[in-house]
């Protein structure tokens, strides 16, 4: 039983907590750093910097967020494709263009927890390497959709709090730094559509929190590390349009894992399709097209199979169309064309809506949309 006196004391304590404390004004050094960052960038169309006036950068500076207790800048977030009202004055989705470069001054914002300069199309130059060494509180680093060049900072792995690293759609080159696998909090990694070379780090499986890994449309080579199969939370993996070789790791998408989409198209992968992949009832998107995969398609589909997309086209697959595929609950887009398949296409609902395009260019398939087997 809680005494009335204790309840009163609790109420008083809560009241103190609920009285809004005056938020601290912007730290003078962060204010100066922001002005240096602004001086290196230019943006005319939306006027995002027009609010960056006055001494208190924590009061009404667009895209700047502060820790109210000490007036240190915690968030700097400017998006060139935004839905919010400030950015879209006429009620239209706004699209901005910003040029210039990311000043080293960003590293003087030592309490920064998120840094977002996304989809400005023309921001060029390198990612300041000090970002990796001088911003230890960084949780979110998003710089996609610009024209950034140079490499990913080699010490990126020291950003131990990082949960989101999105550098997609730039012109970044060089290798994925090996240190990246030290990012033990990382959930989202998006490096797609750059010019990255070298291998996917072999200990990629150390990223145990990772749920999305998008590395497609680069120039990566070497094998898909087998450690990828052990990532317990991996839901989306895109390694398409690289130059990866070797086999698809056995066990990818197996067990109690949560893989829902896998894009490995347009590489140089060889060997068999692991049965674990096709048996996985959670996998809804599988694109293995344009590789050198061979052998038979494992006949392991079930009533739980539900594929929005199953594209195995342009490989060297042989044998027949698996009979078990006819028992799948749903196959939205199936493409088995340009392989070495032979025999009768099984009858069943998943095949009813498909046309000849899904099966063309094989050795001796027949039935279904291809017409009667003779
Ligand atoms: C499968 O991936 C390849 C390579 O990225 C792509 O060209 C193709 O359009 C994809 N298939 C589908 C149906 O999206
Ligand atoms: C299947 O893939 C081939 C080549 O990869 C493509 O030409 C064809 O249009 C695709 N068919 C369907 C139904 O998407």
UniProtKB/TrEMBL annotation:
The keyword Membrane applies. InterPro entries: Leu-rich_rpt, Leu-rich_rpt_typical-subtyp, LRR_dom_sf, LRR_N_plant-typ, StomDev_PlantInt_Reg. The keyword Repeat applies. Residues 28-67 form the Leucine-rich repeat-containing N-terminal plant-type domain. Its main location: membrane. Keywords: Cell membrane, Glycoprotein, Leucine-rich repeat, Membrane, Repeat, Signal, Transmembrane, Transmembrane helix. It holds the Pfam family LRR_8. It comes from the Eukaryota. GO terms for cellular component: plasma membrane. Residues 1-24 form the signal peptide. Coiled coil: none annotated. It is found in: Cell membrane. This is DNA-damage-repair/toleration protein DRT100. It comes from Dichanthelium oligosanthes.
